[in-house]
Structures are given as structure tokens and as C-alpha cells.
């Protein structure tokens, strides 16, 4: 990240260079240092330097335990599976919506956009409750199927598909908005020019649109991965008791098993798996803000 | 879909999206809303046997519901007030003053967003454990306060930067004091955006579940945390449904005010889009 060029957040007149500005920003900056930077450093230190009879010594024992423990590994793999499936589903669902919204301005399009953004205003706890009422045992879908003489569904509630459905629902708004913002960079001229030389819909999408929004797709995926990998509420309520995703797993290790050392090890491992997405995401946000 | 550049008479693609999204997004919420106003709804009847408000009375008569509403509101007010008190002066400084490390510090607020959130919460909880902040009101305040910093600084900075500087200078030229200029020129122009940031951080804090659950439970029980226990342990469905409707009120208010902001392109760009 380049953060040092002076004009990045908009310039101020050089004559007004006043160090007392530092005082005004000190409290929030110290909070970031104390409650974000320091916990991360401390987490890495406390999991690598474990106390021994002769003082603390470097050891990767907690990590070795995680990666040799069958239960931890199955939790990690269900997390990776959920994150991957959600990311793919989000693209499959949101890209067509975003493409449609970009290229139409009918009243129906305004309604579709309103709907696509609406989940942003539904807290995930209400979503979880609605999910259980609709797709859970004897839920509304069962009621309707029963009324027309169909058998009950095999409910996704408390299976790995429960969190997948919930997390995709929850992430639709920002994915659509980020993709739509990327599609804003695709000019109508480029598309008309391609069409003039006879490009079909698919060729248009593949050669003209996708290359221009590839960065937005990566940003959308990074944002979704960061949110889903350590999601807590939806997997905790909708997912199976075992194997569980990393979020509920860390919470249970920390609060129910009173084992903060192991919980923090699990947290550092989630950092490790997400670091590429995290840095890429932060870089994109910083670049956009600076522009 | 990409070819819908030219208008067709009937927007079939749009109608298909509208129908599917209505089913997936609106329908589940309507089901919850129906449950909240239902006295009796036994399987396998497709519509409730008896509508009514009986469970509103019963839910609102519960002590745990009132104590968690009070707790949620107290927390959200405390966090938002603290956040405004420390972030707005900082935002003003970032927008108007030059000082060493200004850019680095400005972008440092992104740090929390480079990590999966719950992992970060667990790392913070490790620190709070040593400070005996687990299970305390102020522990939850601190963890939720950190969550508001980015928006409470970045949005107001943009607001202060968009204020017309020539008007401020003109006011200074005719002899207005700096405080007077801030009060009469700067604040009215930046005010609406700052109010939106404050509203968003209030609503965000009100619904913050993960930090409250990890740090605060069981001593600090907010409305979303109570809702989790209703979902897990409460056989009476209507309690959860009524609580869902109550819980949704702040979000509804945010929806009324924030839709224009959210639909504008700058909002998505704020998320890196």
C-alpha cells in the first residue's frame, strides 16, 4: 500500500500545517492501536511463546495441535467449503442482477434494485428466525407443499446448507452494489462498438464486460470471504452442531471450554487464511478513497 | 441480459428477477410478520387459525424483554455518543489540518477490515480477559466503539471536505469569529451527512451481536442476544416473531433515511467497489 503521497485524502493549504491536529485524532488512533493492532500482535506472540517451567519459550505446539486434531481440521474444512460455495453462489446470483440493473432503467429495474439492497436492512438475527420459520421443520414451505399434496422437504436447517443459504442472502446487497459500481466503468460506447462488429451476448460479456469489471469481482469476493470465513451468528443458529464453522468454534472454545489460548490460535489461523483477501480488500478501499 | 440496452416493451427479464427476489427476500419476512400477529397457527393449516395481539401483550410483559431493550438502547446511545465525541473532532482535523502522519493515520482505521471480524473479536477478548472486562458493560462498549470508528471518521471527513470553503472565507472576511463560522457555515452544510453517519453507527451498534455475545454474555444481554436464546430455547414461536418485529424498528428508520445514500455510487465505492 502506498500511503505516503501527501495528496491522498485531499490536500490542505500548506500554510496550515499544525501539529495540534495530532491531538484531535489521538483518541481514535490510540483506540485502533490498543484494540486492533495490539490484539493481533499479542495473539501471535501469546500463541508462539508458550510458558514453560524455565520462562516462556518459542513453540508451535498450539498450531501443531490444531493441524493434527481431527475435529479442528473438519471445522476448518467445513469453513473453507462454506466460504467457497458462498462465494461462487454469490457471483452466480449477483452478477446477472448487476448486469440487468446496469443495462436497464425501467420501473421494474428500480424495484429489483430496491429488493436486492433490502437485506442490508434486515439484521442477520431476524434473517435466522425467518429462515427457520420458512425452511425449518413444519415451516411455511412444508405447509405449502403439504397443501398441494407434496412430501415435506429435507430441511437445510442444522445442515451445512443452512449457513450457506443465510450467508448468501445476507451478502447479496453489498455484492450487487460493488459489482454495479464496477459495471459503471463499462462504457456504452465500448459495448455498442463491439455490437457493431457483430459480437453476440456471450462474446460481449466475456471479452468486453468481464475484463473491465474483474477488479470489482475480486473486491466483491474478498469482502464476502472476509465476512463469511469467520461468520458467527448465522452458522451458530442455522448450522450443524458438529462440524461447526470457525466462528462458533472459536466462541465455544473461548467461552464454553475456557481455553483462550486455543481460541486465539484458531483466530490467528483464520487471519492466515484470509490475509490475502484482507490486504487486497483494504488496498482497494484505500485506493478508491484516495482517488 | 447484457443486451437490454435497447428498451423492449415488456421487461421480461426484470419481471423474472422481481418475482424471484420477492419470493426469496420479501416472503420470509412476511411469514415472520404474520407469526407476530397470530394467536393460533397449527400445522398443517396454510393460514393461521386465529389472528390477534395476544402474544404482543405476553412478550411485552416479560421482564427479560424490557431489560434487554433498555440494555440495547443504553449501549447504543453510549457507544454512539462516545464515538461522536472522539471521532468528529478527529474527522475535522483530518479534513482541515495538516499534521505529521496524517495519511498513514487516516488509513489506519482500515486495519480492522483486513481481518475476519470474529477472529479479531477473539483476539480482543484475549486482551479483555487479562483486564477483567469480559462480562462487563464497558467491555461491550469498547468493542462496539471500535466497530464504529471507520464510518464515523471517513463519512464526516468527506462531509467537511465538501463544505464550500469560499463561503467560510467570505464570512471570516466580514469579521465572523472561527467558532461563528463553524456554527453558521460549516455545520449546516456538513450536518446532514454527519447525522447520517451518527444514525448508521447507532443502528449498527444496536444490532451488533457477535461482540455482545462473545464479550458480554451472559451478564450483558442485548436484544439480539436475547433473540438468540429465544431461537434456541423458546418453544413459543410468537415470542421470537414479536421480538423480530420490535427489533426491526431501528432498521426501518435507517431504511427511510439511508436509502438515498445507499443507492448512490459513492456508498459502494466506500466498500471498495
Compact description:
The complex is a heterodimer of chains A (291) and B (273). Chain A has helices at 21-48, 61-68, 70-102, 107-117, 124-135, 140-147, 161-183, 188-196, 201-229, 233-238, 246-256, 260-290, and strands spanning 49-52, 55-58.
Q: Your description of this structure?
A:
The complex is a heterodimer of chains A (291) and B (273). Chain A is mainly alpha-helical and 291 residues long. Chain A has two domains: 20-59, no CATH class; 70-290, MetI-like fold. Chain A is 72% helix and 3% strand. Chain A has twelve helices and two strands; from the N terminus they run αββααααααααααα. Chain A has helices spanning 21-48, 61-68, 70-102, 107-117, 124-135, 140-147, 161-183, 188-196, 201-229, 233-238, 246-256, 260-290; strands spanning 49-52, 55-58. Chain A has a two-stranded antiparallel ribbon. In chain A, helix 7 (161-183) crosses helix 9. In chain A, 49% of the residues are buried. Residues 1-7 of chain A have low confidence and may be disordered. Chain B is an all-alpha fold and 273 residues long. Chain B has two domains: 12-52, no CATH class; 63-265, MetI-like fold (Orthogonal Bundle), CATH 1.10.3720.10. Helix content of chain B is 74%, strand content 2%. Chain B has a two-stranded antiparallel sheet with strand order 1-2. In chain B, helix 1 (12-36) packs antiparallel against helix 11 (237-263), helix 6 packs across helix 8 (178-207) and helix 10 crosses helix 11 (237-263). The longest helix of chain B has 34 residues, at 63-96. Chain B is globular, with a radius of gyration of 23 Å. The mean pLDDT of chain B is 87. At the A-B interface, helix 1, helix 3, helix 4, helix 5 and helix 6 of A face helix 1, helix 3, helix 4, helix 5 and helix 6 of B.
Amino acid at each position: 500500500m502506498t500511503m505516503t503521497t501527501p495528496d491522498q485524502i485531499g490536500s490542505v493549504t500548506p500554510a496550515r500545517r499544525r501539529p495540534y491536529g495530532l491531538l484531535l485524532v489521538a483518541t481514535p488512533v490510540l483506540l485502533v492501536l490498543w484494540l486492533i493492532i495490539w490484539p493481533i500482535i499479542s495473539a501471535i506472540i501469546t500463541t508462539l511463546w508458550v510458558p514453560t517451567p524455565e520462562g516462556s519459550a518459542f513453540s508451535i505446539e498450539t498450531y501443531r495441535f490444531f493441524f493434527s486434531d481431527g475435529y479442528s481440521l473438519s471445522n476448518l474444512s467445513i469453513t473453507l467449503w462454506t466460504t467457497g460455495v458462498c462465494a461462487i453462489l454469490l457471483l452466480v446470483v449477483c452478477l446477472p442482477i448487476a448486469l440487468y440493473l446496469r443495462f436497464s432503467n425501467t420501473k421494474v429495474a428500480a424495484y429489483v434494485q430496491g429488493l436486492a439492497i433490502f437485506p442490508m436492512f434486515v439484521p442477520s438475527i431476524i434473517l435466522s428466525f425467518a429462515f427457520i420459520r420458512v425452511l425449518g421443520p413444519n415451516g411455511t414451505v412444508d405447509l405449502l407443499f403439504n397443501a398441494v399434496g407434496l412430501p415435506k422437504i429435507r430441511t437445510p436447517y442444522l445442515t451445512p446448507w443452512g449457513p450457506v443459504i443465510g450467508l448468501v442472502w445476507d451478502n447479496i446487497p453489498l455484492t450487487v452494489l460493488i459489482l454495479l459500481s464496477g459495471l459503471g466503468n463499462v462504457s456504452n460506447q465500448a459495448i455498442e462498438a463491439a455490437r457493431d462488429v457483430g459480437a453476440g451476448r456471450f462474446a460481449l460479456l466475456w471479452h468486453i464486460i468481464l475484463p473491465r469489471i474483474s477488479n470489482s469481482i475480486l473486491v466483491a469476493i474478498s469482502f464476502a470471504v472476509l465476512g463469511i470465513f469467520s461468520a458467527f451468528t448465522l452458522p451458530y443458529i442455522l448450522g450443524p452442531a458438529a462440524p461447526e464453522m470457525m466462528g462458533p468454534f472459536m466462541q465455544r472454545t473461548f467461552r464454553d471450554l475456557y481455553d483462550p489460548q486455543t481460541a486465539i490460535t484458531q483466530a490467528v489461523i483464520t487471519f492466515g487464511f484470509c490475509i490475502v483477501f484482507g490486504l487486497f480488500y483494504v488496498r482497494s478501499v484505500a485506493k478508491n478513497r484516495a482517488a | 441480459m447484457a443486451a437490454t440496452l435497447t428498451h423492449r416493451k415488456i421487461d421480461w427479464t426484470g419481471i423474472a428477477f422481481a418475482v424471484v427476489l420477492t419470493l426469496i427476500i420479501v416472503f420470509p419476512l412476511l411469514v415472520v410478520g404474520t407469526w407476530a400477529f397470530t394467536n393460533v397457527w397449527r400445522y398443517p393449516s396454510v393460514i393461521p387459525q386465529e389472528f390477534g395481539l395476544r402474544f404482543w401483550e405476553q412478550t411485552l410483559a416479560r421482564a427479560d424483554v424490557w431489560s434487554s431493550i433498555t440494555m440495547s438502547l443504553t449501549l447504543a446511545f453510549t457507544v454512539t455518543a462516545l464515538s461522536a465525541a472522539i471521532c468528529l473532532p478527529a474527522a475535522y482535523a483530518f479534513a482541515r489540518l495538516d499534521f505529521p502522519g496524517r495519511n498513514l493515520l487516516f488509513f489506519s482505521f482500515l486495519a480492522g477490515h483486513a481481518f475476519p471480524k470474529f477472529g479479531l473479536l477473539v483476539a480482543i477478548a484475549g486482551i479483555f480477559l487479562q483486564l477483567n472486562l469480559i462480562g462487563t458493560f464497558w467491555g461491550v462498549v469498547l468493542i462496539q466503539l471500535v466497530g464504529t470508528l471507520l464510518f464515523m471518521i471517513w463519512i464526516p471527513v468527506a462531509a467537511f471536505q465538501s463544505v464550500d470553503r469560499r463561503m467560510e472565507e467570505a464570512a471570516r472576511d466580514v469579521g465572523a469569529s472561527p467558532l461563528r463560522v463553524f456554527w453558521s457555515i460549516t455545520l449546516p452544510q456538513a450536518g446532514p451527512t454527519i447525522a447520517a453517519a451518527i444514525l448508521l453507527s447507532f443502528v449498527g451498534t444496536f444490532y451488533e451481536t457477535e461482540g455482545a455475545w462473545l464479550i458480554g454474555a451472559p451478564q450483558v444481554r442485548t436484544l439480539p442476544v436475547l433473540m438468540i436464546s429465544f431461537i434456541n430455547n423458546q418453544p413459543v414461536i410468537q415470542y421470537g416473531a414479536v421480538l423480530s418485529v420490535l427489533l426491526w424498528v431501528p432498521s426501518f428508520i435507517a431504511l427511510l433515511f439511508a436509502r438515498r445514500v445507499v443507492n448512490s455510487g459513492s456508498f459502494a465505492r466506500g466498500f471498495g467497489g
